[in-house]
Amino acid sequence: MLELEVRLDSPPPAPLPLTLILALPRPKALRRVLRTASSMGVKRFVLLNARRVEKSYWQSPYLETFAMNEQLMLGLEQARDTLLPEILIRPLFKPFVEDELPGLIRDTLRWSLIRPPSRNAPEHRKGGDPRHRPEGGFIPYEVEQLAGCGFTPIRLGERILSTETAVPALLARLF
Predict the structure, then answer these.
(1) What pLDDT sits at residue 130?
(2) What is the dihedral of CA 148, 57, 31, 95, to 10 degrees?
(3) Is the residue at 99 inside a domain?
């Protein structure tokens, strides 16, 4: 017989003071981003459509509430946290940025992580296997729309990083 004693005598770690807005990444990468970022203290995610997001990503079973919550819970377990993050799914970029984003980010710091300019790297193209293309990121129009909401574009260097690498690198630098 096994006997357990549960003590709830300390609060969860403090959350990070931010909302993580992501152009919807590859579904398998999304799983890792949710797990890692929730373990680091992100409490609100916005999954957003952008020009370079593959339409097929929106039909992934990984976008079902249960599948996303499973990854969030794994991150919370790792960090000894108990407060489940919120995930907002916004499949329309422009209405989100124009109508909802200003209220969501009021009185917050605003940065948008942008990819470095391509020199000799192939640009993101439709067609072919998406696993073998560079990460999409936001197109210049989308970066301008975010800048219009007060976001300052920043880069993590000259390399194009995958979303699952860029998110924890950015969070570690900022916090």
Answers:
(1) 53
(2) 30
(3) yes
Domain that holds residue 160: 20-118+131-174
Residue with tokens 């800048």: 147
Are 116 and 157 contacting, i.e. CB atoms less than 8 angstroms apart? Answer: yes
Phi-psi region at 127: left, alpha or beta (left = phi > 0; alpha = psi -120 to 50): left
Residue with tokens 């152009």: 23
- So what's the pLDDT on residue 143? 92
SS (H, E, C) 99-155: HHHHHHCCCCCCEEECCCCCCCCCCCCCCCCHHHCCCCCCCHHHHHHHHHCCCEEEC
User: The whole model's pTM is what?
Assistant: 0.85
Q: How many domains does the chain have?
A: 1
Q: Among residues 136, 93, 130, which one has the least CA distance to residue 113?
A: 136
Cα 126 to chain center, whole Å?
22
pLDDT at 38: 97
User: Is 10 within the bounds of a domain?
Assistant: no
The low-confidence residues of the chain, meaning pLDDT below 50, are 121, 124
Q: Is residue 1 part of a domain?
A: no
